[in-house]
Amino acid sequence: MKILICDDEKMVCDFFSQVATSQGYEDIDIVHSGEDALTQVIRKNYDLITLDIQMPGVSGLEIISMLRSMCPHALIALISGYIPDEIPEEITSCADIVLSKPVGFGAFGQLLAGVAQICQTMEQIRNLGIIPAAVR
Question: At 17, which CATH number?
């Protein structure tokens, strides 16, 4: 599973990365700005993008719709210090989940497990159409 962590707080990025690594995920990229997130999504297709709402420069609010169109299959988790009800509907509608800070080990671990399960299911669905020549 390919994970992109986007947050301007190094401690948050390190924490999410440590949780993911402890659960066996190794393909993890970390960026600290919205601009860098857009650059990474051009280079690589991600399964999970965690996106802080408020960052210097281009914020998560400004790029979420771009990320959604550039990487439509990725699950996008908005991470916010705001209460989810305070976030505009047009923003939350682009996200798959909104998590309020602080995000604990258990909650982030559950998110990773859920995304991994979705990825596995999608791979199984994709493989349904593949029939080896020897079986036909």
Answer: 3.40.50.2300
